[in-house]
Design brief:
The protein has about 170 residues and is mostly beta strands. It has one domain. The chain contains 1 helix and 13 strands; from the N terminus they run E-E-E-E-E-E-E-E-H-E-E-E-E-E. The protein has a 6-stranded antiparallel beta sheet, with no helix packed on it. A 4-stranded antiparallel beta sheet has the order 9-10-11-13, with no helix packed on it. It has a 3-stranded antiparallel beta sheet with strand order 2-3-4, with no helix packed on it. Strand 2 and strand 3 form a beta hairpin. The longest helix has 7 residues. The two termini are about 25 Å apart.
Length: about 170
């Protein structure tokens, strides 16, 4: 595993007819447009594992409430995706609705650490997540796909095959 810091992958926000952001961006690989659209506008992290590229994409840089995670292969094809949500506590909800000072509240997606050649941990808000990237997709029963600790904080498209296995190791 290694961080990719060059412009191998980048995003170009897709604008609506009135010039506002459409919540989607076009994926560019080596500066060339691809057919892939992703949710979000900021490529927060890009990580190479095996011959895959793992992208963490957010909507904002400072106040991160959700991160879309995409896996691309070396043939520039999107092969898996997931969406992770922040775990809100009451103070967090109060900050969201302006009931407490927002300056004391900020979202974070930090502390990316490689545990092995295909496993990593990262901190998202107050939780520490573990992500295993599988070399080949595995079929899972939906309830066994990820550790039950993720609960409603993880959203996946329908299907039983995945390359990405999540769990929360500390909440």
């Amino acid at each position: 595993m290694k961080f990719i810091t060059d412009n191998t992958f980048s995003l170009k926000p897709i604008l609506k007819w009135n010039g506002s952001f459409s919540e989607k961006s076009r994926v560019l690989i080596n500066g060339h447009h691809t057919r892939y659209k992703v949710y979000g506008e900021i490529l927060y992290k890009c990580i190479q594992v095996y011959s895959y590229y793992l992208l963490f994409i957010t909507y904002e840089e400072d106040m991160i409430y959700v991160s879309n995670v995409y896996l691309f292969n070396n043939k520039e094809k999107k092969i898996d995706k997931a969406k992770i949500y922040a775990s809100y506590l009451q103070d967090d909800l109060n900050a969201l609705f302006g009931l407490i000072d927002e300056d004391t509240y900020s979202g974070e997606l930090t502390d990316f650490k490689f545990v092995s050649s295909n496993e990593m941990t990262f901190k998202f808000f107050k939780s520490i997540w573990k992500l295993e990237i599988l070399e080949k997709p595995r079929c899972y029963l939906y309830s066994d796909m990820d550790d039950r600790s993720c609960g409603r904080l993880l959203e996946r498209p329908p299907g039983l095959r995945t390359y990405l296995k999540f769990n929360i190791v500390h909440n």
